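hey so i finally got around to running the thing on that chain from the lab meeting. sorry it took forever, my laptop kept dying and i had to restart like 3 times. anyway pasting the input first so we r on the same page abt which one it is
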Amino acid sequence: MPNVTNILHITPERCTGCLRCELACSMQQTSGLLQPAKSVIRVAPLEAHTSYAPYTCFQCAEAWCMTACPVDAISIAPTGAKVVSWERCTGCKLCTIACPYGTIFLDLDRHKAFKCNYCGGDPACARACPTQAIEYIEAGTRDWQGAFAAERAQRDLAAAVA
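ok and heres what got predicted. didnt touch it at all, straight out
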């Protein structure tokens, strides 16, 4: 299969909103401290907290964050993740503004950008998820939304037409 890569595959229907992914991520980002604000995966409550959807950096092909960075502090790691070099980052926040998904953040303690880097190829969020709503899998596509988005779009379109 051409262009096979590992991705975080997120299945929102499986998410229970337990936030274990956020806690595991925050521990990874802070070298063992529980600081959910430092997590780069977030769980969004939907439909009046009756369902949940984890989201993080899509590692998109467009890489607006990389393009916007004036000091080339964002590069592509062997895992395929776009990673921020804290040595080069000036904390200007242009990458956070450029990301249309809102998944690159500014560490207020260090004044540096940070985002999902797949934990170097072993994502803590996927390991911590008890329902496999987040999986780190080999896939030939970066479309993590897959059938979920297509089904929801069709349902919403049908409701709008009716």
